[in-house]
Amino acid sequence: METDNVAKQIDFGSRKAGKTYGFDEDHDKSRPAQWWFQESDEGLILFVVFYTQACRWSRCLGCNLPSQVSRTHVDYTAIIAQVDFLMTDPGIAKRRERIRKVIVSNNGSVLDEDTFSSTALMYLIAQLNLNMPNLSVLAMESRPEYVDTAELEFISRALAEGDTPTHLEIAIGFEAFDNHIRNNVFDKGLSLESFEELLSKMAPYGFHLKSYFMQKPVPNMSDEDAVTDIRDAIDYLSRVGKQEGVRINMHLNPTYAAVGTVLETAFKQGKFTPPRLVDVIRAAQHAKGKDLSVFVGLSDEGLAIPGGSFLDTGGKHLLAPLEQFNRNQDFNILDGLG
Ligand code: SF4
Prior knowledge:
- This protein is of the alpha/beta class.
- It has helices at residues 3-16, 76-88, 90-93, 118-131, 149-160, 179-185, 192-202, 223-244, 262-268, 277-284, 319-328; strands at 34-40, 43-49, 99-105, 137-141, 167-175, 208-215, 248-254, 293-296.
């Protein structure tokens, strides 16, 4: 295992993007970094961020997610202990029969076996089968380059042994639709060709896809251009999802100025303001009648600098209707709000 090489890649990516944050090296390795519940049209969701070695890409412009995990390797025994911790947590235990979806994250790529142990992943699936009898979807976050269909097929077979049929969903970060913004400014390293290749790899197995987008992900982007970018993404996802026969969900995150990234600097220099929720609604409304679902991310996970969150732009009265929209995908709720 190239543990040192992964740490070097993390350092390289962080330096390239001018990141100044540190990592959470004092974290208790037997506990996940974070976990929370979400309500969606798919039912109750448990979102878990496992504490592992950070994302080796680490260079995306506005992202400080690696700061919540470790720069150095976290071995499989620790990740297994985190699974045990979750399965015995009273808040999770009392909801275990209601949980319909689990999203597995490590703020990087769960399918990168150098950062997330394969043994621990198999152990997690066994525990989900044993403890969550009504699980309908297991989502795993990953960069596309780590998606290996043979591995997914195996996981899928293991999940089928649970009490309820469980679909696999791959969750990937897309962030911006405009090619120049996505790859030259944000430094995502994702081409449309590789995205479409991923869809055609997944289609025969019936796996679902979640794609994360950020509204207004870079400095010097107008609110109007940010809305247009998301609308273009909706049109694209709706078209390719239909073409490839893959069910797609867009997870739309309004951007915040994340601590220790160039967005923090840009915010302080007046070159970046977070998007307004009213514009997020205008963007999401474009998905009405299209072949995809939309979930609007409404938390900055406490990673924004003071005043630098979309929650600071006014429009807090829009949170409740957006939460309701997330739960039922009823676009009528958004009418007249955007
Ligand atoms: S956005 Fe994802 S791929 Fe990019 S640095 Fe953050 S965790 Fe890594």
